Amino acid sequence: MEEESKKIDKKTWKKFGSLYTFLLPHKWIFSLGLLFLALSSLTTLAFPLLLGRIFDESTLERINDLGFILLGIFLLNAIFSFFRIYIFEYVSQRTLADMRQKTFSRLITLPLTFFNERRVGELNSRLSADLTLLQSVFTTTTAEFLRQIVTILGGIVMLSFISMRLTFFMLALVPVIAIVAVIFGRFIRKLSKETQQKIADSNTIVEESLQAIQSVKAFANEYYELNRYTGITNDVVKVAMKAAAYRGAFVSFIIFGLFGSIIGVIWYGLILKESGVISGGDLFSFVLYTVFVGASIGGIADLYSQILKAVGATENLMEILEEEGEDVSLSDGVIPNQLKGSIHFNKVDFHYPNREDIEVLHDIEFKANAGDVIGLAGASGAGKSTIASLIYRFYDVQKGEILIDGKDIQSFNLTELRREMAIVPQEVILFGGSIRENIGYGKPGASDEEIVQAAAKANAMEFIDKFPEGLDTLVGERGVQLSGGQRQRIAIARAVLKNPSILILDEATSALDSESEKLVQDALQKLMSGRTSIVIAHRLSTIRNANTILVLKGGKIVEMGSWNELTQEKKGVFQNMLEHQFELKS
Predict the structure, then answer these.
(1) Fewer CB within a 10 Å sphere, N or C end of the chain?
(2) What's the rounded Cα separation, in Å, for the pair 248 and 246?
(3) Rounded to an integer, what distance in angstroms lies between the CA atom of residue 455 and that of residue 447?
């Protein structure tokens, strides 16, 4: 895999380091935490020195004095440690909240082209698994890593103060340990990143299976999905255990090397003591400092491997943060509902960014005056939905231009433009809250009176009033508690509440029973009144009253005109579609 072959380089560490910019808003309290970290480390380093002095003292009074000093230092150490832990936890939690908000903010503002190339489960994993991994790094690993560095540097200074000869002897083994740390670290990072990727894949399977649970059960594929999930989670275990084996071997080597070094230091120290170079107390302090330094080096090895895991997660996370999002900010002094709603496609060519070799639309030219109804007819894949997407500016054209009220669509503020539009899709997916919340989504902050009026215009109160909870009825995940007709009327009510200048209807009645179709069609007619409406027709009878019907084939407009004009062309494409649909119906 390409991801596995990536090595830790300057760019990789720069990406990881960039995450620490999230600490900047909390730099002063973080600095206070660093101060307590330094104080707790220094008070810890005073312990071996004073304990060695106790061994060299001959009077009980002096021993008692040093003992009380030690107790005082331990009390200070406990106080410093409490504030160190509390402050770093506070900073890490605030930093992680900022990171989660920034990542979600970037995700929610990315263009549709990004989501067309990603799976929802994978993106969800970036917000959960990767940030959870980073949480431990910000919460404990970074602070502990710094504490160990202070302990190592301070310990080496104290060791040098006691005996330079013993210090050089002890430090001779450090380069060997460092080289082994780098080699093992590369393997651990690669395996950790592979584990994270497989966890993301497993989350994707869960997400997709639960989102399409009705299809899973309809096709009796519960065991198929279970086998898929079992396979990927077993792969996670295999890779994680392989990584654990490397980490275990690494830590075991470090422990063996460090304790071997301590034994060597004791052996050489006893020789120096017999020669009268150092005292017994100094040797005892030196051994304790050696243990402190050795334990810190051993601890850094494991902390370093955890940081390497976080580096792998950082690369995935930074891919999202580095993506260029859409500008969804509002201009100052914007007054809503300023568009009249005229639309002009001027020789538009378009292909999807990830399929540059396939032209979806070619030389599209048509005009819609404000308040016109434009019907789009054609076979599946002819380009009907693409035209609707371009009006919404989900994508930008490669050639030609789209004019709204005579102005290039790209000159509009994106949020202001989309606030002037509403869409009623063929397949309505509702949020999992209440009916009130789903209708109110069309106009955040709308009053109950406005929501009720919108629901009434959409013929939705007819079924809402039958529910015991009324507008507070929960619709379930994706609206599964409601029928198709009920979901459509909720979507129409949402559009009514938004009061758009331009309305896009993706044939909202094609999959409904006759009774629901009549109610929905009536609601749609009320909604379309006085607005520019683009109607994507699967059932051609729904665009009988359109001012202009565009017949698309292979991404081109092959016929254009009113219903009467097109049906008079006995051998025309539209007439052929109409006859074919009539045959299927009969």
Answers:
(1) C
(2) 5
(3) 12
Where helices occur in 275-336 by DSSP H, the ranges are 280-321
DSSP symbol at 550:
E
Domains and CATH numbers, the chain: 10-321 (1.20.1560.10), 335-420+539-586 (3.40.50.300)
Cite the DSSP H helix spans in 57-141. 60-109, 112-116, 120-125, 131-136
CA distance 130 to 139: 14
Quick one: tokens of 383?
A: 């380009």
The per-residue pLDDT for 5 is 38
Residue 40 neighbours by CB distance under 10 Å: 23
Count of C-beta atoms within a 10 Å radius of residue 337: 11
Maximum CA extent, the chain = 120
- Please work out, in degrees rounded to the nearest 5, the angle formed at the alpha carbon of residue 381 by the alpha carbons of 375 and 383: 45
Count of CA atoms in the C-beta half-sphere (13 A) of 37: 23
Q: What is the pLDDT of residue 128?
A: 72
Rounded to whole angstroms, the Cα distance separating 91 from 34 reads 11
Residue ranges, the chain, pLDDT below 70: 1-20, 57-58, 121, 125-126, 129, 135-136, 138-140, 173-179, 181-182, 185-186, 189, 214-215, 218-219, 258, 298, 301, 312-313, 330-337, 478-479, 508-517, 581-586
At residue 451, what is the residue type? I
Q: Which tokens in the block code for residue 79?
A: 């106080």
CA angle 392/454/447 to nearest 5° reads: 100
Residue burial 433-450, b: 16+ Cβ < 10 Å; e: rest: ebbbbbbbbbbeebeeeb
3-state DSSP call for residue 107?
helix
Distance CA 556, CA 478 (A): 35
pLDDT of residue 34: 86
Q: Backbone dihedral region of 179: left (phi > 0), alpha (psi from -120 to 50 degrees) or beta?
A: alpha
pLDDT for the residue numbered 44? 84
- Looking at the chain, how many residues does it have? 586
| Tokens coding 229 | 């999930």
Q: At what angle do helices 448-457 and 514-528 cross, to 10 degrees?
A: 120
Question: What is residue 138's DSSP assignment?
Answer: I
Q: Name the residue type at position 4.
A: E
User: Which CA distances in Å does 7 have to 13, 18, 193?
Assistant: 10, 18, 11
Residue type, 277: V
Q: Tokens 């075991």, residue? A: 252
Structure-token match 């021993």, residue found: 63
State how far the Cα of 376 lies from the Cα of 556, in Å rounded to an integer: 12
Within 8 A by CB and 6+ apart from 405, the residues are: 339, 340, 341, 342, 370
- Give the H/E segment covering residue 582: helix 573-585
Q: What stretches of 333-458 show up as alpha helix (H) in DSSP?
A: 384-391, 414-419, 435-440, 448-457
- The two tokens of residue 162 are 């006691």
Q: Give the global pTM.
A: 0.66
pLDDT at position 344, please? 92
Q: In what order do the strands lie in the sheet with 361-368?
A: 361-368, 343-350, 399-404, 407-408
Q: How many helices (H) and strands (E) does the chain have?
A: 22, 10
Q: What share of the chain is helix, strand, coil (3-state, %, to 5)?
A: 65, 10, 25
